[in-house]
Amino acid sequence: MDLNNICKSLRTGTNKLALQTATQKNAALKAVVESIKNQKSEILAANALDVQKARDGGMTESLVDRLSLDDKKIAGILGSIEQVIAQTDPIGEEVGGWKTPNGLTIRQVRVPVGVVAIIYESRPNVTADAFCLSYKSGNAILLRGSSSALNSNKAIVKAIKDGLASVEGGVPEAIELAPCESHDEVKEILTAVGKIDMALPRGSARLIKMVIDTAKVPVIETGSGVCHLYVDESADIEMAVQIAKNAKMQRPGVCNAIECIVVNKKVSKTFLPKLVEAFDGKVTMHADSPSFRTILKYLKEEKGLVVPEPVKEEPKVEDDVFSLSDLADVLGVSDKVSSSAALPKVSGVDWLVPAERKDFGFEFLDFACAIKTVANLDEAIEYINGHNTKHSESIITNDRNRAREFQNRIDASCVYVNASTRFTDGGEFGFGAELGISTQKLHARGPMGIKALTTTKYLIDGEGQVRG
Known about the structure:
single chain; alpha/beta; four-stranded parallel β-sheet; 15 helices; 40% helix; globular
């Protein structure tokens, strides 16, 4: 990869965009919409190659879902660009202004960041989303997708560049796609001080950590999504079940899907059986000891499942997960076992497994989740803050005071009451598209739209003042 020439071209692009009006930028984006429409068949054909390669390589279907495009997803991409076109151009917006005692007039205005790089996995829709947000906000962007989506990304970028070239004032230099020839490209981008003004990672926890550890250019951290749903003792149980089903099952491979359900013990015997019915064996439940026992009891008493009797009533549980002796007791075998692998499975219930310590705070990105029973709201908040990635958390409750306490004390970019975490999305928030979900606390937090790609500068007008 010739990064020097790529960045030189991108810098030319952002310099040109800095001189353009919102009308000019919108006209270019409208041309991009038409170009993507005209090249839809080529984009879908390229995507089909990526999807087939991914399946042949053993990629899980939940991750294939993130990679794949169809008519509906192409329509979503176009709709996102059109929403961005409709938004107010943030460049030049005056966010503050005052006059000093000596007569200086000071204005703080929004300006583009400059040359932005985004490093992301799969998700070819990110290619279009990141481009349109950066273009509207006057930035040039370097896209470094994953090899799994290379054909799709190439086809989308071609359509974008063709669209920009087709309209007077379009700036094709404002977008470049890294060739994805080796992993060394990522390090080269992240250490390009003076060439790249800001980098954004979007993907797995491993990718994000690598970017943060490697980067010498400024980075906006987007977090992996270990999201929780807490079912409070005052919850509407039917609502809680439906929200849990949506937040886990609608698209399990996305970052705003829940990975752990936390339930108050006062409602666990009501909620967990209904959750079992809603999941219908399609979601693997990694249950802690109290949850596991509640579900087993329901399966035995209501479903007629033959379940071994536990040897003792109150087994010892270590750090919220099963001790080997506890597992042995629940499954009716000797406690002289060397590992959980030696324990028998519950017959006919392969979707119910004893939680291990590593299951808490883990991003499954699949039809699987952890189940945790807690005594009260304080314990729920302490647990969630200790295991989340500061992405999105939700409480189901009919108690307004508990709802506000949860929102005030939970450390996350988005905190919901009586709603699915699946709404943490730039489109759902009215941004049209998003660069990702920022889980840090500097510059931007939560879904990042146009303004996340701006910074500010001060414009100072005087009449000959000098400092004494």
